[in-house]
Predict the structure.
Amino acid sequence: MSAADAVPAPMPLRGRRVTLGVTGSVSAYKSVEAARRLEDAGALVDVALTPSAARFIPPLTFRSLVQGEVAADLWDPSAPAEQHVAMGRRADTMLVAPASATTIAKLAQGLGDNPVTLTALATSAPLVVAPAMDSVMYAQPGVQANLELLKARGVFIAGPAIGRLASGGSGLGRLIEPVELAAAVRSAIGRTVGDLRGRHIIVTAGGTREPIDPVRFVGNHSSGKMGVAVAEAARDQGAAVTLVTTQSPPAGSYGIVVRRVDTALEMQETIRKAARGADALVMAAAVADYRPAEAAESKLKKQDAEEPGMVLELVENPDVIASIDAPHLLKVGFAAETDDLIANARAKIEKKGLAFIAANDVTESDAGFQAETNRVVLLDASGEAERLPLLHKYDVGVRILERLKSHPRWPARQR
Ligand code: PMT
């Protein structure tokens, strides 16, 4: 077992109680996986099922899976009295997934005639509704009007997605994936009680790709995990998050605005556009300091020259983080070092105008590039150094955000 295996998994929902409402849809199988993901994230999950949901998924499945209570029958004499009221009251959030057209209509009209709709009436916690139905049903003006009504009341509508539908064919109406359902719950809790409500944080992730020709690029080993972890941690605390990344949108990015870029210049331009009104920029991306002077328009062919090899001319990229200058923007850098970690990282704070920097030694196998964990030292201009233990990258993100929130230049106001 390596040291990284002993690092506790992140628990973004620790101490939270979530009520999962399941309604009648073939996609109810995804709610089983969502319940597991919510509990893996630290939540205690109660489940309420409509009678039709119980025909798709027997309540016993949830009873075997979750730590909380499972309410499937209003008239069950062995169930606690007023179970829906207790479940509604203790919920930090309620997720209705899948939400059928009928349940959406009942929620919009304030009807309570089964364990799901009654619990929804009995809660004042944020409600997340994840529709699932055929695309023609979803497009019905009645369904859309009900969803608009719910939105106007502050209900979070998560999805639906476009994809294969049980009714045959493909279209808009598919229940979002369990990882996104769990992310929607985290986002809703953040938006309701999180410390970063009203803030906008830009996070960068991944290694830039500087084209040599249409098929090759100058790049590096960054997987984007560190940046994604910071973005998720900020989303979970209620911030509006723009993730500027060289990677495909990560699974579980619900509630995060993802901007895909390739090069340092594209990253710089995208950050500039997002930076107006932003509160912080956290640059976890590994930006290439140099790019090929010219990118060939067609694939370079191997030359049969007398002198083997080729010379690639490189020009300097801008220092992206140093170049972004927006009022109120606190800038946090990462320093990827292979030697003299502290001295090299410290030199970058002033040079790049940073509030602080997270230094990581990228020669370690359980830290830096690609690992799930990281070992960073947080350094600021005053010379103070905080050495964090080996942590999951999400928890490194949490610690960085704590630093940000206690920084003297972090504005007290909420926009
Ligand atoms: O993505 P992962 O696989 O999870 O790996 C995470 C990581 C190792 C990439 C991450 O933890 C990390 O260290 N990111 C910074 C990598 C880097 O470019 O370090 P640097 O020391 O060369 O640059 C210092 C800071 O300036 C960084 O915040 C960097 O984003 C920024 N920079 C660098 C060069 C440049 N031209 N413009 C910049 O803005």
